[in-house]
Design brief:
Blueprint (H helix, E strand, L loop, with lengths): L2 E3 L9 E3 L22 H5 L7 H7 L12 H13 L2 E7 L3 H4 L12 E6 L10 H14 L6 E4 L9 H12 L4 E5 L5 H8 L12 E4 L6 E6 L5 E4 L18 H4 L8 E5 L3 E5 L3 E7 L3 E7 L5 E5 L3 H8 L18 E7 L4 E6 L3 E6 L4 E7 L4 E5 L2 E2 L1
Length: 384
């Protein structure tokens, strides 16, 4: 129903219309597919409430199967280019490589703002300038020259959020704004944070519906009578461990607060394991200090290399390691990557999971990761 009767007062009953305080839609509890829907129990209460669409927009954290970059995305970006819209390209500070969408540059308009989200999960000592330089260099290779790059975080309203809003308003020139990004970069959460003080001053409503000419559900948020913010679905990156493991495990992999790097002085014949998700064997070289950057929810173990195979098989069902994947039963389910470290500052990246940094001195190292998950090596900040 759309109307709600207040309690009787004497011989009369007051009938009033309930509206969503987010988008202004008339609330109803009959059809989940129609505008203004709320569950019956919410509709029955007297408190102000959000319709389900606005609620999901503000608390968008449920897993959705993310699509590949396909013709639907090309259609959306072609429309954005035609409109001379602003593209807000969201990246993940913790996993830049996994969040940079290879080959997307040729489809983007010239007006691009890059947001490096989740900056607060990296240690405060981590260089902001290094992050910006790394992003600039890698986007440049894809033909993307952003108008601006801002470090921010959806988990903290004070982390440059007001600067982001000002920059969006400045760069959009009255045009619409399209948010794009890989799956789990925190794009929708960032929009939620930006819209905490949002007031819909138009007669249009926040909607979730397929973008015209596509099968993709896009959230449309009216900015004014002529323009919108479009929140597009996260794009699937098959090279990231986030796209490999079970959806319910993702929350353990993605850092939720500032990570605590773990350092170990190691000698050859030792292995480091993150449950059954990844393993590093130190095969040859002089004593080395390895520093691991990963989610604090993941337990890092050091064992002798000759015991590492049995360890992987034993932890799959360990209740203390809820992040372990049931897809991995033994080392045979992992792919081997052999690395010869050159003499320089080295980082080994397991895309989506984290990275290991150390001083390269011609060490020989073997990394195991789920099949298809990319393992990369950086030397002095450059991928090799």
């Amino acid at each position: 129903m759309f109307l709600k009767k207040n309690k009787s007062t004497g011989l009369t009953q007051e009938i009033r219309v309930k509206r969503c305080y987010g988008c202004g839609a008339i609330l109803q509890d009959q059809d989940p597919n129609e505008v203004g829907y709320v569950p019956p129990e919410k509709f029955a209460c007297d408190e102000e409430t959000l319709c389900e669409r606005c609620y999901k927009l503000r608390h968008y954290s449920t897993f959705k199967k993310s699509p590949d970059f396909n013709l639907d995305y090309v259609t959306i970006l072609s429309k954005a280019k035609e409109e001379e819209a602003l593209i807000v390209y969201v990246l993940n500070a913790f996993c830049l490589t996994g969040s940079i969408l290879e080959g997307i540059g040729k489809y983007l308009p010239k007006n691009v703002l890059v947001l490096i989200n989740k900056r607060d999960v990296l240690p405060k000592s981590y260089s902001d300038e290094f992050l910006k330089e790394l992003v600039t260099e890698r986007l440049f290779k894809d033909g993307i020259r952003p108008r601006s790059i801002i470090l921010t975080s959806a988990s903290s309203k004070n982390y440059n959020i007001s600067e982001v809003m000002k920059e969006i308003e400045k760069l959009r020139n009255g045009k619409s704004v399209y948010f794009i990004g890989a799956y789990q970069v925190g794009k929708s959460s960032l929009i939620n944070c930006l819209l905490m003080d949002y007031t819909n001053s138009t007669d249009k409503m926040i909607t979730t519906s397929p973008y015209p000419g596509t099968t993709l559900d896009v959230i449309s948020i009216p900015l004014d009578e002529e323009s919108y913010i479009y929140d597009t679905p996260g794009i699937y990156n098959s090279k990231s461990i986030i796209s490999y493991i079970e959806p319910e495990k993702v929350k353990y992999i993605i850092p939720r607060n500032e990570i605590r790097p773990e350092s170990f002085l190691s000698k050859p014949g030792q292995s480091f394991l993150i449950g059954n998700l990844a393993r590093l064997d130190f095969d040859k070289g002089s004593k080395t200090l390895f520093t691991f950057f990963k989610s604090n929810d993941l337990i890092l173990d050091r064992v002798k290399t000759n015991k590492a195979d049995n360890y992987i098989a034993s932890v799959a069902n360990d209740p203390d390691r809820e992040y372990c994947s049931q897809k991995i039963k033994s080392v045979d389910d992992l792919e081997k990557h052999q690395i010869k470290a050159e003499k320089d500052k080295i980082r080994i990246l397991i895309v989506g999971l984290g990275f290991i940094s150390f001083e390269g001195l011609d060490q020989e190292i073997t990394v195991y990761a789920p099949k298809g998950v990319e393992v990369l090596v950086e030397k002095g900040g450059q991928l090799i």
